[in-house]
Amino acid sequence: MIQSKSKETEDHAYKEKVLEGNVTQSSVRSIVKLKGIRKQYNTGVLAIDHVSLDIQEGEFVSIVGPSGCGKSTLLRIIAGLGDYSAGSVEIASGDAKSKGSRDSGLSYVFQDATLMPWRTVLDNVTLPLALRKVPKAEREAAALEKLKMVGLEKYADAYPRQLSGGMKMRVSIARALASGPKLLLMDEPFGALDEMTRYRLNSELLHIWKDTGITVVFVTHNVQEAVFLSTKVVAMRAHPGRIREIVAIDHPYPRGDEFRSSIAFTELSASISSLL
Ligand SMILES: Nc1ncnc2c1ncn2[C@@H]1O[C@H](COP(=O)(O)OP(=O)(O)OP(=O)(O)O)[C@@H](O)[C@H]1O
């Protein structure tokens, strides 16, 4: 008898192949496909133009570029949170223009943790599931699992004011993961954190990425952060925002301090910085 593999097993196997750099053209599945995107705001500002980008399942893609080059505009378009003036957006099997983020299996993490101060950590993480009418026991179990993933299960009953900046961001990430998205969009999530905390959260994020098999699109000003995290770095230039170059970061995972202090890391960071 032929047994079909479960979706989870298939996703895991696929992810392992991506991590090993062992994905052939025929096994690659696009999760984000942007073609010729142009966005002109009604103020007349042409934020981005001619942006085409293909992101495969399981990738960790960072977008870097100078302030105002359209990174957030692009991320919002992928999320279905903002419209565009020309081009096409396909997210997995849908078009971001017609699908809200809640329906298309994606979550968004902002620079500010945006937690509700009157709700406990657990109640903040369960919120997206409560809005979807997921039963209480089920949503609390899912939230606790994600809090455990970010190392905060002991703080489930705490309030946001009792947490440090890094802990608040972990809660925000747990909340984004609670609905089990396939695609995680992150807009400068660690921009406000000190360097030590940022390094720690970078490593934790890579663990989560590996464990969940999720695809991540990550906006940052910080070229070193992009190189450390990513399978691929998208370097943008401004006025209007366009993709200057897409640089593959071939260094294997898991990545740690030895990668950060390597010559390859320094060279990649310098060559990407020179593009901006
Ligand atoms: N709602 C808006 N209305 C009008 N113009 C906007 C709006 N949002 C962004 N812009 C303009 O579009 C351009 C791109 O902005 P965007 O915020 O996407 O850039 P960014 O690369 O994310 O910048 P930063 O790194 O500073 O956050 C900028 O010139 C900005 O002023």
TrEMBL record:
Record keywords, A-Z: ATP-binding, Nucleotide-binding, Transport
CDD domains: ABC_NrtD_SsuB_transporters
UniProt cross-references to Pfam families, sorted A to Z: ABC_tran
Residue stretches making up the ABC transporter domain: 32-263
Gene Ontology MF terms: ATP binding
Source species, domain of life: Bacteria
InterPro entries: AAA+_ATPase, ABC_transporter-like_ATP-bd, ABC_transporter-like_CS, ABC_transporter_ATP-bind, P-loop_NTPase
Positions of transmembrane segments: none
PANTHER family: ALIPHATIC SULFONATES IMPORT ATP-BINDING PROTEIN SSUB, TAURINE IMPORT ATP-BINDING PROTEIN-RELATED
Name the record gives this protein: ABC transporter ATP-binding protein
Annotated organism of origin: Paenibacillus oenotherae
Classification of source organism: Bacteria, Bacillati, Bacillota, Bacilli, Bacillales
